[in-house]
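ok trying this again, last paste got cut off
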Amino acid sequence: MKNNKANILTQGSIIKALIRLSIPLILTNILQTAYNLIDTFWVGRLGKISVAAVSLSFPIIFIIISLGSGLAVAGSILVAKRKGAQDMQAVTHISSQTFFSVFFASLLLALAGYVTTPVLVGIMKSSPEVFAEAVAYLKISFLGLPAMFIYVTFQSLMRSVGDVILPFYIVLATVLLNLALDPLFIFGWKGILNPYGVRGAAIATILTQLLGAVISLYFMLKGHKGIHVKIKDFLPDYTLIKQMFRLGMPVSIEQISRATGIFVMVMLVAHFGTLALASYGIGSRILSFIIIPAFGLGMATSTLVGQNIGAKEHERVKKTLKLSLSIAFGILSFFGILFYLYAPVIARIFIPDDTLTIAESSIFIKHLAVSFGFLGILIVLIGAFRGAGKTQISMLLALFSVWILRFPLAYYLSYHTSLQVRGIWLSYPVTNIVTALAGLTILVKYKWLSQTD
């Protein structure tokens, strides 16, 4: 493998390492958000049935993806530690086993998803028109699942060795290709290409995923960028795979918990009518945008923590955490102040002509903004615990946040007090602050660092 000493994060300036890792990761997350927005934009031209079908499909796809993505995260945790220890033979072996395991799992998930699509969509109780389009969209999407998992695995492994530039360029290429292919396959082209409607969006997505998979495979097999997948290492190493499942299962449970949590919160809000639902939608979009920098910093922290634990640089791990937590809290608190002060102006961007929705969504935005800094702390903590291999802690924080705090609190305040829908708005800052403080307590009190490796 070439460039064995490239991207070592166990020496030098911590702040420079965080910036070098975080900025490309933030840009990559923005591009992935743009990818979904492009799909939504073009599908929206087909009408509300198609939009509803795609919207209905997203939670199902996300839950299926969550089942397999834990293995990719587990592989990246182990690779980061071996990279920090400069054990490049182990890096190659773990990378190969991760690729083999995730790809095999993706084939099983794709088959299971394809076969059970009508059942999965039927659970959502949609209209017959939406049901038919959602089934068609999902079946095609599941066919592309293995290609998508190839790239997800590549991205995770590359991040674990400190290379975040190449994955950024691959995402950029797929976004640009999707921008061109979406209208062609959805609406057709000059009688040469037939219009496929909502199916066309799924076809375009598969083609872009194939591009990402082919490029990723090329670099993994060549081994020029720090990750080298070797076919001879595909023979199952059951001890390693068992370790990956032990690390990855909590990650999958965490992500499924968050996905189902979003679903039940939408159900709670929907009870209070269209105004509440529209206000919730605006606030949720803003929240998904605001946390992009925090996620980038959290993933960078995970990589730094993993490599430095592997190198036995425990003091450097502590310095990394102090710096990352301070940056996350500072930056997101700054945004929180701005969004609190200018909530009506921000809400008006999304829905300029509806005074009532602007007013209600402004209240929700202000509730969210109060806890932006604590949400930044929580996201960085989750990244740190993952990097240390303590995925059970991240899982428990997610379960505690969603199912012990947010949902019960939102339900009680909205259904059993005079607050009504604003009880749901209040549950968000309370949950973010309490969970962040719980995570900090675990960080300080629990000897998690001395118990790694």
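PB: full thing came through this time. The chain is about 80% helix and 0% strand.
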